[in-house]
Write a structure and sequence with these properties.
GO molecular function: amino-acid racemase activity
CATH class of the largest domain: Alpha Beta
Protein name: Hydrogenase expression protein HupH
Oligomer: single chain
Number of domains: 2
Radius of gyration: 18 Å
Family: Belongs to the HyuE racemase family.
InterPro entries: Asp/Glu/hydantoin_racemase, Asp/Glu_race, Hydantoin_racemase-like, Iso_Racemase_Enz_sf
Pfam families: Asp_Glu_race
Number of helices: 9
Number of strands: 8
Strand content: 5-15%
Largest sheet: 4 strands, parallel
Distance between the termini: 41 Å
CATH architecture of the largest domain: 3-Layer(aba) Sandwich
Length: about 250
């Protein structure tokens, strides 16, 4: 059997092995063959959370630093494990292998399944992340609403131990999107919410998109179809400066 195709999943925060397993648990939501393998890599450079323009800049740098050598390391694709799509466009400019962002592709899938979609998130401070991607895609008019459960997220332990508190509130929030805002599709507003997907999907009358596992399936499809992003849209830099990102990473690790 030939060596399996390899995908690098960039996790947007530094974390220990136990918390990284909570991210890796997203793999249970998709059935992929033995000929593809996924490695989960936490970044070294990251903000505390994604609530400001400064945070987004730091997140972009962290993702590029962590994924800049993915192609040279033998990976066939990269997945961005955050709905913010941090670092996606910059990595597309320096890599030729597919780079799949969770947010953009969740939106595009929603429009394959319905006419209007809503984001359901943990807190309202994530709203600018969705607004940015919608503006880039020109799809603001397709977004029925952005509603949050108004609960403090935890990007390390995720929802573990909080199911009884969080799941009913997320479900009530999603129902308002469907019943009041007329959403045809629900998008989970963060890959940190993946543990709630099965509960929401089983109790809502519309499709619920789980952005992280979606990227794994799309990476598999892109590799099999021998497709990647257009270098006309994402041109390579005239002078690559990967050494700058390497130096920033080394400074943080030391």
């Amino acid at each position: 059997m030939p060596d399996p195709r390899r995908v690098l999943v960039l996790v947007p925060f530094p974390m220990d092995a136990d918390n990284l397993e909570k991210r890796r648990a997203q793999m249970q939501a998709v059935k992929l063959g033995p000929d593809i393998a996924f490695d989960f890599r936490p970044v070294a450079i990251a903000p505390i959370n994604y609530v400001s323009q400064q945070d987004m800049l730091i997140a972009d740098i962290g993702m590029v630093e962590a994924g800049r050598r993915a192609e040279a390391e033998g990976y066939d694709a990269v997945c961005i494990d955050t709905v913010s799509d941090s670092g996606m466009t910059a990595l597309r400019s320096i890599l030729s292998i597919p780079v799949i962002g969770a947010g953009r592709h969740a939106i595009l899938l929603a429009l394959m399944l319905g006419e209007r979609f809503s984001f359901v998130s943990m807190w309202d401070r994530w709203r600018p992340l969705y607004e940015k991607t919608l503006a880039e895609l020109g799809l603001q008019g397709k977004c029925a609403s952005m509603r949050s459960a108004d609960l403090q997220p935890n990007n390390q332990s995720l929802l573990s131990g909080r199911e009884e508190e969080v799941f009913p509130v997320l479900l009530a929030t999603a129902r308002r999107c469907v019943e009041e805002d007329r959403a045809d599709v629900i998008i989970l507003g963060s890959t940190t919410m993946h543990e709630a997907h099965a509960h929401l999907a089983a109790n809502l009358p519309v499709p619920v998109i789980n952005p992280g596992p979606l990227t794994y399936r799309l990476a598999d499809a892109a590799i099999r179809l021998k497709l990647s992003h257009s270098k006309t849209t994402y041109p390579a830099p005239l002078v690559p400066r990967l050494d700058l990102f390497e130096a920033m990473g080394a400074a943080v690790r030391n």
